[in-house]
Amino acid sequence: MREFDLVVIGGGSGTAVADAAADRGGDVAVVEPGPLGGACVTRGCVPSKGLIHRADVVEGIRRAGEFGVDADLGDVDFASITAAVNDVVFEKAQHMERQLRESDRKTLFDAEAEFVDERTVAVDGEELRGEQVVVAAGARPSVPPIDGLEDTDYLTSAEALYLDERPDRLVILGGGYVGAELGHFFGEMGAEVAIVGRSERLVPREDRAASEAVTAAFEERYDAYAGHEATAVEERDGEVVVTAEPSNGDGDGEDGNGNAVEVTGDELLVATGRKPNTDRLDVEAAGIETTDGGFVATDEYLESSVDGVWALGDIAGPPLFKHAADYEARVVARNAVLDGEERVDYTGLGHAVFTSPRVAAVGNTEAELRDDGVEYEAARAEYADVPLGTVSKDDRGFAKVLADPDGEILGCHVVGEEAPTLLHEVLVALRSGGGTVDDVAETIHVHPARNEVLLKVFDELAEIPYAGTPDWSDVTMGEE
Questions:
Q1: CA 239 to CA 138: how far, in whole Å?
Q2: d(Cα 107, Cα 100) in Å, to the nearest integer?
Q3: pLDDT tens digit string along 229-274?
């Protein structure tokens, strides 16, 4: 048996804990059977956003005529696009591996780990024991039990990022953020996209106004079967055929009357959620308790039910965001390596959905506040209400804010260009400021910039006359 000060299972965000221990003279083992960097670097957010950036470029060219620019798209070299993104992300993974292997304090085990007892794992025929163990082995795409699916060739998000050839017609199962983002990419690349989602709206966990905006945009460009659930899949005459029945949502879907539909395509993408990798680690052998969803159960310090065993990232449960995992890694490093007692605190944790239009949000949705019986006030401002939004023809964009009567920010939802960036001033107000409407309303905003839409909506809640610029809501930009 080999003894280590720290054993980290997973080569993503958990490597930050490994670095912290090695920097302080610890002997560290990192166990990762795949490319380093975790799902984010090689199978998730980084490659997907690289592809989506190219989709945004294509979309800009398609819209150029709206601004008096005569531009022809010509050809889209799909294989070169995916290859370029592939090269970048795996270069990063290889760089991480070189750094780890060159370290005198860290040892990489390119294999699966399986618990033997509380702080001992079996790895490629030998056992590793750590004084501290960090479980950061992530999650993987979840595949639902749909009749015929196991006998049908299909893609998950991991494979869809690295196709050499673009499908002509793509059917996507799942209306959440993964399905919607990849739908945007493949659609802008020229594929005919059909998306099937159980809920009455796409990205249904967002505030209703935001999810309705995304759903409306998809319905204009693609075949959107919201309120339908796939019940059967088969390959027929060289095509993939999905049968979708009305779900428990409104069930109106593309056909408008809630009837079952058949959706056909050349390729099928299953994007119906993710499941934690606890089952692959045999955490029960270590006495590590899990939640009903199979995630490692942790306390407020991110320690598991076993002393000295910590968990972070997707395997520890929601919120399933890379930036949350990176924050959790800092907390675990302070507690496991520096013997600290830092509680995890998700105040001001936002997120974004990289569709077109973009979505970014923090805090509660309006439905959540109503269901909880919380008293609140709501305000909304359109991108077109401020100068840059008007001249940029951002006719879909808006900001919506929810606050309690005393001015505490309860939620903020932004839809449109640069939404993930715009949200950050609200995140800072929540995390480092007073978390109040006045924190944003009293900030001097750059003019002209899109974030004046936040000044406008927060001014309304603060009952301050909008003083950024004169109201532009009645101004329209004609066709060039």
A1: 33
A2: 7
A3: 999 999 999 999 999 999 864 444 444 456 899 999 999 999 999 9
